[in-house]
Amino acid sequence: MMATLIRRATADDAARIGAIARAAYAKYVSRMGREPAPMVADFAGHIAADHVLVVETAGVVDGYMVAWAETDAYFVDNIAVDPARQGRGLGCKLMAHAADEAKRRHLPAIRLYTNAAMTENLSMYAHMEFIETHRVVEKGFARVYMRWTVPAGEK
User: Is 21 helix (H, G, I), strand (E, B) or coil?
Assistant: First the structure.
């Protein structure tokens, strides 16, 4: 397998990140009756705020994560891998990076949300030991918030 690199996104990555978001989330449009938030996100703004990391293989951006530190957790706002590159562990590498950031910043957890209609994500995050904390409707989206606690001794 080719080596992968996780790095900060640059303004030059914005179009590729947007294309990955549209491709990765397109399957949910019919289920949700509208485009999921990542399909219309302001990636250039997130990049300017230094909130975006990309995972690349051989110089090609294969996925991204929009995330930042909050007072009580490292918050993952959005994460996606190009559907043509899924199944290669790239999303797991991004989540491992989030866990490392939480530990490095002495934060007790990773927090994220997904849409209730994205049942595959609910199962995947549960498998990764995320615990559902609450559900809420925000901006018209049925969001399920989840939290993963950094193991004791690793903070």
Answer: helix
The domain segmentation of the chain, as residue ranges, is: 4-149
**Cα 38 to Cα 80: distance, rounded to the nearest angstrom:** 9
Q: Which residues pair with 69 in a beta bridge?
A: 74
DSSP secondary structure code for residue 2 in this structure: -
The helix (run of H) or strand (run of E) holding residue 51 is: none
**Partner residues linked to 115 by β-bridges:** 143
Burial status of residue 58 (CB atoms within 10 A of its CB: 0-12, 13-18, 19 or more): exposed
Q: What is the pLDDT of residues 8-44, one digit of tens each?
A: 999 999 999 999 999 999 999 999 999 999 999 999 9
CATH class of 4-149: alpha beta
pTM score of the predicted model: 0.93
- Closest Cα to residue 4, out of 71, 90, 85? 90
Rounded to whole angstroms, the Cα distance separating 104 from 86 reads 27
